[in-house]
Amino acid sequence: MIFFDFSISKDPWYLIIIGKLFIAFLTIGTFKWGLEIIFNKLTMYKQIKWIEKIYDKQGGFLWSNQQY
């Protein structure tokens, strides 16, 4: 009977690359998400002022697609 040897030296090279890519994508994705949160917080005041300007221009009325 043949048994599998799961020692670290016998791991296929592509599993190591897949693992490293997975960690890289998690890191890059988390970094990008954090930058988007910071950017949205910094531009929130400008977005609110833009919505208020449209609201005042139309006499206190906003269409549903204008508030997003």
Short description:
The chain is an all-alpha fold and 68 residues long. The chain is 66% helix and 0% strand.
Notes on the structure:
- The chain is rod-shaped and about 80 Å long.
- It has one helix and no strands.
- It has one domain.
- The longest helix is centred in the middle third of the chain and has 45 residues.
- With 68 residues, it is an all-alpha fold.
Structural class: mainly alpha
Spans of at least 5 consecutive residues whose pLDDT stays below 50 are none
Helix content: 55-70%
Q: Specify the biggest β-sheet.
A: none
Question: Care to count the β-strands?
Answer: 0
- What pattern of helices and strands is seen along the backbone? H
Tell me the span between the first and last alpha carbons.
65 Å
Q: Which properties best describe this structure?
A:
68 residues, mainly alpha
Please specify the SSE layout and strand pairing.
Elements: H1 13-57
